[in-house]
DNA sequence: CCACGATGGTTGAACGCTCAACCAAATGAC
DNA sequence: GTCATTTGGTTGAGCGTTCAACCATCGTGG
């Protein structure tokens, strides 16, 4: 028994293409701005943000990977670079000898603090300024639904 | 005069983080599926799609870059790989000696045709199946607004 | 007609991500 | 206690993207 492909109807096509174009353009723009103004890609910025929000500004590698929506491998490479930049330091975990703890350094925090206003301004300009309050609400619900759906599958 | 940063309020924060998580998870998933099932990343799939929709299945490099939302450089590298795979062929442009035309080969078309059902199924499962018809409509409007806004700035 | 700027496209180096392989430590079964 | 499995994390190779530099050709003003 062959399952027929459930092709996209014209509305879905249009939606999917618009979504692709918009999300690519948005992330490309923000990534370029961040690279230009702060010397780091958005993925690295997000790692620093997650660390900065944590008591002690530190997190187990695994937890940090989960928080940043990253694979272990990606995070490992990323933290290696962030460490070379002096923004993060690695420490051994006292309770689990396999564990590593990534710690945001003062220099990393300062770099983040310097980068944040410009980046937030970018997010506002490129995303929120273009949408009505109702659309922002819709986008939140849609995104939460999708994120939920994707982690369950 | 120093402009104060217009920080995100809690709702906007939540929206932005949900959006980031969802779009990253969605594209990561689709990219992985496409790589596994068709041996190409999503960006390359999209290039083949654009070519396939065109009369003669060919496009000037510039036009193709625009259609695929890609930089010239990215496209140049990508087409080089697609050419090595035998899915695309380059031809000289008869009317402009600077120009290059990317042509989808029969083999490229066949590969695309083989990959499409699985990919479309993925888009449906991971995106449309999770959303109500109203949400799909909202997502389309939001995306079109954003895409428009981003190309104007 | 020619000089100059704009356009079309490519290239190579640097960088980030993915994938699979790998090691070490923890956990659980017997 | 010992062995197998799972978990935590790293590594290196291969690939795709970016950025800046570059070359060739086109179009235009003078």
TrEMBL record, chains A, B:
It comes from the Bacteria. Residues 12-148 form the HTH marR-type domain. InterPro entries: HTH_MarR-typ (IPR000835), MarR/SlyA-like (IPR039422), WH-like_DNA-bd_sf (IPR036388), WH_DNA-bd_sf (IPR036390). SMART domains: HTH_MARR (SM00347). One of its GO terms (molecular function) is DNA-binding transcription factor activity. GO terms for biological process: response to stress. This is Transcriptional regulator, MarR family. It comes from Micromonospora lupini str. Lupac 08.
